[in-house]
Amino acid sequence: MGWNSWNTFETHIDEELVKGVAQAMIDNGMRDAGYNYIVLDDGWMTKERDADGNLVADPEKFPNGMKALADYLHEHGFKFGLYNCAGYDTCAGYPGSMGHEYQDALTYASYGIDYLKYDWCNTGTRDAQEAYTTMRDALYAAGRPVVFSMCEWGHSEPWTWAEDVGHLWRTTGDIIDCYDCVQQWSHGWKVILDMQMDQAEDHQGLGPFAGPGHWNDPDMMEVGNPGLTFAESRAHFSLWCVIAAPLIAGNDVRDMSPEITQLLTDKEAIAIDQDKLGKQGFRYYQDDEREIWVRELSGGDWAVCVLNASDEMRETEVDFSRLYFMFQDGVENMSIRDIWQKENLGNTDDTPVVKRPLEAHDVMFFRLSPVEG
Ligand code: GLA
Asked: Which one of 40, 47, 119 would you pick to mutate in the ligand 1 pocket, going by the greatest count of ligand atoms within 8 A of its CB?
């Protein structure tokens, strides 16, 4: 869990922004809710390496250098992440790590970073497995523990080979802040969500490939960004929790509404995302107007998220008694917790069906727990 600069700021990043973001995340409760990693994406370097081939942090954007910034973030209870790329240049045209992996890993260790996002632009005919394994080995050799975030967009199906290479791997091209628009290779969150099911050969979804220490990454969140209604932000967040996504906020956390702050810091939703069983959820039901996504949780609990996928307000219904897989091992009755209404709705025995009007692209989000006896 954390924050990344790209979705809102692209390459317009500097030390003041990072410090402002850190302070905001302390003040609004995000840090204490678990958003620990602050990650600077593309644009933190100068356009050229120095005479010895080292990467250089842009002195205008980061006048005190990266080590000082890392120290500052560590003192404030955060971890610090940076970005680079497996190609000769990054996507925004800064020096990439190809041929400099071991040198760059030493640079990162000297800064004291805790996370590396590693992109895939300008890689030519390079083999993804070789490229990411080389960088992984370089990070190991540098000796500082680093979360290794692979950003290869799913091209080589990293879920089939990267379990021991990266801790998380992007599964698609880039997210943008709309519900289901498509712009070249960038997609609204709903399109990216669908790809989590459709990418796998059997259309059973990417879930089985993920687990503790190796996660599918459906990209950073657009929650709170202007292209989404509140309902769409709420659905986006809920469904990212259901699919066990890394929760990396991508909005301007220095300037967000109380509703979005509440959403992003909701303890019950976060507990679903971070559930220790580490099982990714899946789409169980879909028609033109409604989708039901479910996730098995520890202790026999289940998360159930019902999406109004139509473009209009709709009476939306879920019949829990039909989610037969929840009723296993002698479980016959489950209590229903409504996460967004903050209400206990009784048990599936007496309340098998919940039906209510939902705004376009909004969700109902529940946690069900087995009832004894
Ligand atoms: C690619 C990545 C994005 C972002 C940009 C930076 O598009 O997929 O997440 O890192 O590069 O240039």
From this structure: 119
Please tell me the predicted confidence (pLDDT) of residue 203: 66
Q: Is the pTM of this model over 0.70?
A: yes
How far does the centroid of ligand 1 lie from the alpha carbon of residue 60, in Å? 22
User: Between 65-75 and 15-27, two packed helices, what is the crossing angle to 10 degrees?
Assistant: 10
What residue has token string 């059997």?
A: 202
51 CA to centre of own chain = 37
Which domain does 207 fall in, by range? 2-273
User: What CATH number did the domain enclosing 79 receive?
Assistant: 3.20.20.70
Ligand 1 atom nearest 92 alpha carbon? 12
Distance 315 CA to ligand 1 centre (A): 38
pLDDT in tens, 67-124: 999 999 999 999 999 999 999 999 999 999 999 999 999 999 999 999 999 999 999 9
Contacts (Cβ under 8 Å, ≥6 apart) of 262: none
202, pLDDT greater than 80? no
Residue 108's H or E segment, with its range, is: helix 101-111
* 251-310 tens-digit pLDDT: 999 999 999 999 999 999 999 999 999 999 999 999 999 999 999 999 999 999 999 999
Say yes or no: 246 and 356 in one domain: no
